[in-house]
Write a structure and sequence with these properties.
By secondary structure, this protein is of the alpha/beta class. 38% of the residues lie in helices and 12% in strands. It is built from ten helices and ten strands. The protein has helices at residues 31-54, 71-80, 98-112, 176-186, 219-223, 235-243, 257-266, 280-292, 294-308, 313-326; strands at 64-67, 84-87, 124-127, 145-146, 160-164, 191-194, 211-214, 226-231, 248-250, 270-272. It is globular, with a radius of gyration of 21 Å.
Length: 330
Amino acid sequence: MPAGLYDGVVSAEDHRNEPSRTIAPLVPVDIEHELAVVEQHFAGSAALTSAASVAPELHTADLLVCDELDFGAMAAAQRAGVPVVVVAVIASGALVRPGRLAAPLDRLRDELGLAELIRLHGDLFVVPFAPPMRDPLFPAPADTVWMRPAIGAAPRPDGSIVATLGTEFNTESGDLFDRILSALGSVDAPSVLAVGRDLDPARFSARREHVRVEQFVDLDALAARASVVVHHGGSGLFLSSVLGGAPQVVLPMGADQPFTARRVEGLGVGRALDAETASADDIAGAVASARADRALRTRTGALRLMTTRLPEPADVVDRIETALGSGRLR
């Protein structure tokens, strides 16, 4: 999931530029709550704010490109008669559910004075993930345009381990960082844990020499060398791990992460643990098992190959421009 996706849901102020030693308690995964956030926030107050911000720019626009949770921008563009390209940001596709969004989007349509139904997938829906990464219970539209994401270095595993809890849930993770560090300390492999810009690495002073803690790392580069990636289940980390050819150990905490964890296990490219209850030994065991399981890496490699063979971004742009020129995009 993109950084900033839940901005304003927990707090109106963004303190993420202020390194801290404070981490809020970890709460159990609540899928119903995550779906309600999409319905009540992204299709509610956030949508109204987005529509108001975007509307003045649409008078001279030929096209609007937005992500799949920016319902306000979609609605504003429809009202202005501007074609819309929606780009997927949820790899599993399980967080944006048309059936549950029908009523909230009807209310949004009424508030914005839009006569027609809001088109959830715009005039063109672009997905920069391999088709199998999407949950089959939530299929993409038949006319979806699949696009190859940016591809980094080819996998060259060196036995290392990289771990992160992203940039949103890192400060709501309780003692999970400490459990991960303890687990990495017990595995004989060079390891790095990225804690994010809003946490002070000095907070995690008790660690082994082969484990280091950083605010930032080049996750794409490290995933290409890793024997396993330990992460929270964000769509971006799911994709980075696949492109790096690395098996995954996923500890989901919220948002789309539980759905990512299901796809990781369903595709056989990693293992999922309960972030609330998994002990350091459980995490270490999952990491060791993933590192030793050649089938996980083989399946990850096959998924990576499928991803690299998707249409080039330039080809997708050409398709959009052609459709605009011919009037096929509304």
